[in-house]
Amino acid sequence: MPEVGGIPQETEVLIVGAGPCGLALACDLARRGVRALVVEQAPALFPGSRGKGIQPRTREVLDDLGVGEAVREYGGPAPVRMVWQDGRRLGEQDMFRRAAPTDSEPYGEPWMMPQWRTQEILLARLRELGGDVVFSAALTGLDQDADGVTARLATGPVRASFLVAADGGRSTVRRALGIAMAGEEVDPAPMLVADVRVAEGALDRLNWHATQGEQGFLTLCPLPGTADFQLVAQFKEGAPDTSPQGVRAVVAARTHLSAEDITEVRWSSDFRPRAALAERFREGRVFLAGDAAHVHSPAGGQGLNTSVQDAYNLGWKLGLVLRQGAPSALLDSYEQERRPVAAAMLGLSTRIHRGEQERGTATQQLGLGYRTGPLSEGRAGVLHSGDRAPDGRTTGGRRLFDVFRGPHFTLLAVGTDAPLPACDGAQLRVHRTDAQEAYGKGLFLVRPDGYVGWAGEDASGLVRYLARFGLAPVTAS
User: Fold this and answer.
1) CA distance 308 to 342
2) pLDDT tens digits, 151-183
3) Same structural domain for residues 158 and 70?
4) Model pTM?
5) Can you tell me the distance from the alpha carbon of 160 to that of 153, in angstroms, rounded to the nearest whole number?
6) Across-strand partners of 151?
7) Are residues 340 and 463 in the same domain?
8) How many Cβ atoms are within 10 Å of 476's Cβ, its own excluded?
């Protein structure tokens, strides 16, 4: 492969942006044997805690990508909110639905981890898989034709079969394509967001501390696995001062802490809550994903999660087209499936921000699916095609998520002796198990992204369905 300065000039998928979305996609493609190049205009990974909440469904995704243990080690449960007034504790108010893990839903509550840590974990995994990120490689323009995309980067041109824009809400790629982003201001009051260190003994790390005043709310949330707190302060008048002095001043003015109690300001940002959705997620051989396609209010913790799941939806489809000869029309299903989900999550985030809806089951994203999508066919037991495939325990005690783990499809026969096709095991695996309450009885074809694609009481129609992906069983048995 030709290179300039050690950077490939050709790749199969060029990913612009090394945030959680771009890194998750790169990991997924790498384990499929797809050559992907991640380029990032910044000289290093994003340094702030911004998207700190990881929902149960995203934990399942990260587990499948091979970083579940690291997420468990470096993260922790979301703290319960402690309400303060005039320097006194008024009491706790839990903002989240918390449920004990079950066989079908192994993660029952939101998990907290700063965004920079999530990115470090995903980058380490990408390097394990043989990939990496090219930093200081800003995109300046692109052209595409029937066979691929030529991207003009600060480091030189790169030719790719496909390009994925994961370069954030101000996406250079989206603007170069002229794709409009329709949205609204969620809240006219800007916010100061910062990562700070607090003097030992000045504030406990057991709660998510919150105050409410004339200028708006202020919260200090301890970030698990670090010595930091994330500060979020609303400004109903004026603009935030993001300097260290400004951060210390707002803490001293609105809490019982003094300016000197903030021993370090590690990162700060002026954030304007907005909700926006790209009018389309694809232009030829270029795809929009993550914040490049949808921008959320931080309320409810949906932005990073929706972005990672964009990557999880797109990765297996690109892999099948590039490696298994699947029809390129399969890629049309990315926008058809993900844009309605993004629109729904934008509405949810906005309602939570405005106090119109409580955080609850919907924010966990376990109920999201693609029942009306173009790849969903049939139903069996208690599941429709398009539903998330629940976890569970097989007859031998193995986790179903371990059966599904990896880039393959899984044909799961639950509580039935119906004849099954024999498969080569690389792209399609077969597994039988006793009846599962979360499934009922039947045959369930689980897609590589953990959703039921096809379901039925017997295998009739399955061969035809698999042909849509360039797959076919070896024989019938």
Assistant:
1) 12
2) 999 999 999 999 999 999 999 999 999 999 988
3) yes
4) 0.95
5) 13
6) 142, 158
7) no
8) 10
